[in-house]
Amino acid sequence: MSETKILVVAADEAMRAAPVQALGDAGFEVLSVASMDAACDAVNTAPVGLALVHASSVGDWRRLRRRPGAPPVVVMEPGADVPRAVRAIRYGAVDFLAAPEDAAAVVTVSRRHAIPASGEGLVAVDQRTRGVLDLARRVASKPVTVLLNGESGTGKEVFARYLHDHSERAEGPFVAVNCAAIPENMLEALLFGYEKGAFTGAVRSHAGKFEQAAGGTLLLDEISEIDGALQAKLLRVLQEREVERLCGSRPIPVDARVVATTNRDLREAVASGAFREDLYYRLCVFPIQLPPLRERRDDVLPLAEELLQRLGNGSATLSPGARRRLLEHDWPGNVRELENVVQRALILADGEHVDAEDLQFEVAPLSADGAADADGSLDENLRDSEHRLILDTLRQTNGSRKTTADRLGISVRTLRYKIARMRDEGVSVPDSAGTAQVQAG
Description:
Strand content: 5-15%
Structural class: alpha/beta
Largest sheet: 5 strands, parallel
CATH class of the largest domain: Alpha Beta
Number of helices: 19
Number of strands: 18
Number of domains: 3
CATH topology of the largest domain: Rossmann fold
Distance between the termini: 43 Å
Radius of gyration: 25 Å
């Protein structure tokens, strides 16, 4: 897994020497150039996570900042005064170094602002992805609610964790709640907590997720799935910044930064009356749209290689034919589909070399609405392929509905609907322990 690349730009080699040494010792990959033209060429050639620029020696550093997919820029000016720093920030720099010879300051600033080229499940090579990461980096340190919108499998939780890890709350807890996977009658108690005796089985008081996320970040995953009554209660929590447990007698202050995700167009849900407009505007303080994998083609091969390293033994490689097939595929299931394809390829590959024939793609994407056409026109072969895909994934996850739904890029509710239909058609489906006989009808 490659380190984040930092670009150091200064006409004077001596000016570049101290930052280059400090960053290299800290584990960064460092690229040193002497001109703004060379800096622009470097950004075009390979992903750069941050640029440290000695502005007075290389001309207009804003040229670099204006390029599509350009890295954040930190301006270096030894001994500069406060007005110069303020002016640099106003023009688009993310930070200012008045003492670039201070190794600790250089490393601290770089770790704070650099966009990683790759990470656990996060790869940012394509310019569109780098643009999204740039937005996420800018808002991460701000105490505002963020709404991440994107198709299933685009990595919304990965970006939510990025927001947390690059915020001032990074040392606090990161608490995630999948609103689509929890029954509606349990979600309220899970979010807000409850007092002893609030319902049958409540033998002790329990802090909700808002309380558990104090000092950190609360991720409300698939926020569009919660019902109207709970939407009203959630709105009050976000407005008042306090929560009241079920059967509680006193409000409890909320100190959690909220990040919400959805794979639906919430504006359409508002228009149809399925989602409260006032809650939408509370959540959509800073919206970020995540592009699907088919619109960020330059990420496909780096993602595949990162998955090969993570899921394999670290030595698997892709043949030219396999790389070509990966680039030609449309990826309706996004990164989650790519992970499944890589897992299958590692099983089918002869040795450590993945060839084109080892790549097995799904016949067709699963329908997100969970319902077949009313006239029953779904092709028999397509239905059997869907059944086999669900059964294979259940077998891999030991029958876990939640993990299976995540891998298939559908909600748990949709998966349960499909399993019920399969059982009605005589298909034997494994239980949560994976003990039932698995066969396709």
